[in-house]
Design brief:
heterodimer, A: mainly alpha, MetI-like fold, two-stranded antiparallel sheet, globular, Bact_Polyamine_Transport (chain B)
Chain lengths: 275, 273
Amino acid sequence: MKKKWLSYPYLVWMAIFIIIPSLLILFYGFTVKDEQGFRFSLQNFYRFCDPIFFSVLFKSLWLALLSTFVCLIVGYPVALILASKEYSKKTTMSMLFIIPMWMNFLLRTYAWLTLLEKHGIINSILSFFHLPTINILYTNGAVVLGMVYNFLPFMILPIYSVLMKVDNKLVEAAQDLGGNWVTVFRKVILPLSLPGVMSGLTMVFMPAVTTFVISKLLGGAQYTLIGNLIERQFLTVYDWNFGAAISIIMMIFILISIAIMSRFDEDKGGGAALW
Amino acid sequence: MVKKVIMKSYLGLILLFMYLPIVVLIAFSFNKSKSRGNWTGFTFKWYEELFRNSQIKDALYNTIIIALLSSVIAVVIGTLAAIGIHSMKKVKKTAVMNLTYLPVLNPDIVTGVSLMLMFVFIGTFVKMQMGFLTMLLAHVTFNIPYVILSVLPKLKQMNTNLYEAALDLGASSSYALRKVIIPEIMPGIVSGFLMAITLSIDDFVISYFTTGSGVSNLSITIYSMARTGVKPTINALSTLMFGGVLLLLFIINIRSDREEKKRKSIKTGGMEV
């Protein structure tokens, strides 16, 4: 088939809407604007080297890591159960974990306000049973909850789809050879599911680091993560150069984390020979 | 037995966590009081107001039009691109595929911000205002890769001999494309289209940065309302949309069930003979 030219409209589109915008981000990040126009400078990056901004970056990374970890701990058993022989034939059950994503995520996040408020639904129920009430709204706790709530399906689905492909004969063979369920899980199921875990980790961590909506809704107007910082530079302060520089810094951290995860993945695969 | 109970209750617990906010949203679309938080009685008035509120109607209109247009454009460009990419040599293919993965891997906020910079940049040469058109272009941009990624596997599965056989039988290459290749990869095109529509309807971040001059979709409307308090009319709208999606899912499920049964009965019927 000699049909290469069919992809030309796409390549032109990508050049205009992906490559040029990416170059523009780099351009803005490495320049400052003064009376004579733009000139090359690293000033935006110097400006970021401030304890205030570092703490924002650190907080974003920390909260994203925390919610990724919680998603893994909560989501892995769900994927395991859904892929088990009791449930693997029931596709409705796995559908139930996808359906919530079809409701606007802003609204679903907003609904947590109603649930978490001081005199909200959860506290009303807790006080009805004379249990201590919780006040996590507008704290880190609420933001992590919002992240876990929004991104949990991104952890469950890739692990689930990998586990569904695991040959059941391997598990049975391990059991026949005398492995109890802990050994079977540790030595057979877990290693085989690692590719799914890796893509789950990336799919949760990335949007969690960059979010500015969840933090604004559940953390309050003054709550600042790196995403809020970028949004503010572009839409409130109109310091696009600094905003672009922060975006570049954030991208670097994301690329590093992706590199670490894929490295870890390879280690697991190739490491066996070394040991 | 104990294991089954534990499994069931764990799934139930997680599902409760996932559905609790949705239940709250739906419940409060029937709440008399305007404020979230206290229940003052049952009413349908938010549903009535929904059909009168022009802000929400405009936002819904924009959302649907942009979702449909951007998905159709993305499907056309993306499908052709996938066919082209499929016939490329290895090195070039890898380069183009890396480019395709870029918007998928890029965080939404970076995609949105970079597109905004570009639209402003173009705006200095051509008279162009941020608004409906820029939002549409942005949506097409983030939709195309998903179409390509769902069409390419189907092309890989396809037997190349089919296309060559069509040519040998005298079909022109465009005729063979329409009659052989497109029908073969149709499932991929459909799933790409559905994915594009879903992504477009659900998008907030990229739309937020690429819109302007008062043009907003549902997500932007909700976000701007969230500061002053979301009106129950939005709850009513999303209840309707959620119900619509569930209904659609239900119908598809029943239909595929019925087809399965038909297929089974044909099989067993054949065996009896």
